[in-house]
Design brief:
alpha/beta
């Protein structure tokens, strides 16, 4: 089997990690893999470091005729069985190039749970209705949105994102109390995420006053950076002032060690395809409180593998966090069941095998 994987992003985030996990996993299983990305950017750099065949093609937007032509030439040369597009812009470019070259089955990964009809012109329906043989959604939540937007359910498979369990096992059990000048034994609550609008870290900030009524010594950490950080910091200034119990750490290279150190991990997104950071927390033994949106309820099963709350509800979020801190036996039970769930369904190996199964069924004429 010959496969080509296209990612148009210039940075490295969760989607790129999942695409690279897939590419390297397929390669180890004897599948031919070519990864296509922006020149001298992380996706192709890491692909080359993994020993994969790499094609560097400048891709400027999703209607770049030069990129389409170059992709089509690549397809004609490689004659792939599967052309897998991992980003929205790759979707359009890859479909047009596949049509031009007349080769390969097309697959698009969908990792987000927002509607495809974000444009008032609703032109995306043409993009999503035509030219794609198969969609892979990372959760039932993503699939439901796609179906409600008009994509036939029969053309969508669910293959959840995966986490590298062996790599997670290497995460050190650090103690950051000295670095952050914390008194001994105080409960630590944390959110680790890019500061994008849909991550809604301001909800956790707004939950702080109520949380501190319930657990006065709790510390709340917001780990990460991004375009919306300044906005969240402004909300913090207005809500809690300069209270030292709320800490913005900025970007950290040891984010997983921080997750392991937290007493409670929080994800208060308002849109979320799945969230591999929650899977990290599950495996690392940190109990999770998550908002009830997108694919989160599939991994934070309320009362079984964690606690879930309505989105944009600071009071409910504060109550759930406080409960997790006050009931450690309950939290330990959540951790045990959450870890078993990750091992069974959300490993990298499970993701690669699930995707390979979709490919094989497509080529056998059983899907699409």
């Amino acid at each position: 089997m010959k496969t080509i994987h296209i990612d148009t992003e210039r940075t490295w985030r969760g989607g790129e990690q999942q695409a690279m996990y897939l590419a390297t996993g397929l390669h180890r299983r004897g599948v031919s893999v070519v990864v296509v990305g922006q020149p001298d950017r992380p996706f192709v750099q890491r692909g080359r470091a993994e020993g994969l065949e790499v094609a560097e093609i400048p891709m400027r937007g999703e209607a770049d005729p030069v990129a389409v032509t170059r992709l089509a030439k690549l397809f004609l040369r490689e004659k792939p069985d599967i052309i897998h597009m991992h980003t929205s812009h790759a979707h359009m470019l890859g479909v047009m190039a596949a049509r031009l070259a007349g080769t390969g089955k097309t697959v698009v990964s969908r990792r987000v749970d927002f509607s495809i009809h974000r444009s008032r012109l609703r032109l995306n329906i043409f993009k999503y209705r035509f030219g794609v043989d198969r969609y892979i959604a990372i959760s039932e939540g993503v699939r439901k949105v796609m179906v409600s937007d008009g994509i036939p359910a029969a053309r969508i498979d669910i293959v959840p994102s995966g986490v590298d369990l062996a790599e997670l096992e290497k995460t050190p059990c650090g103690d950051f109390a000295a670095e952050f000048k914390l008194p001994p034994g105080v409960p630590v609550v944390g959110d680790v995420a890019h500061f994008g609008w849909h991550k809604a870290q301001e909800v956790l900030v707004e939950a702080c006053p109520r949380l501190w009524e319930l657990v006065p010594d709790a510390r709340v950490f917001l780990v990460g950076d991004g375009d919306c950080r300044a906005k969240v910091e402004m909300v913090a200034k207005e809500t809690v002032g300069d209270d030292e119990r709320l800490v913005f750490t900025g970007h950290r290279t040891d984010a997983r060690a921080l997750i392991r150190w937290f007493d409670v991990f929080v994800m208060c997104s308002v849109l979320e395809g799945l969230c591999t950071s929650i899977l990290d927390a599950h495996w690392l033994g940190t109990p999770v409180v998550g908002s009830r949106v997108g694919g989160i309820p599939e991994i934070v099963i309320d009362g079984e593998t964690g606690l879930s709350v309505p989105p944009r509800d600071p009071a409910a979020l504060a109550e759930a966090i406080a409960r997790m801190i006050r009931e450690p036996e309950m939290a330990r039970g959540f951790n045990e069941r959450a870890r078993a769930l990750v091992e069974k369904r959300y490993s990298v190996d499970a993701m690669v095998e699930g995707t390979l199964n979709v490919y094989e069924r497509m080529l056998a004429g059983e899907a699409g």
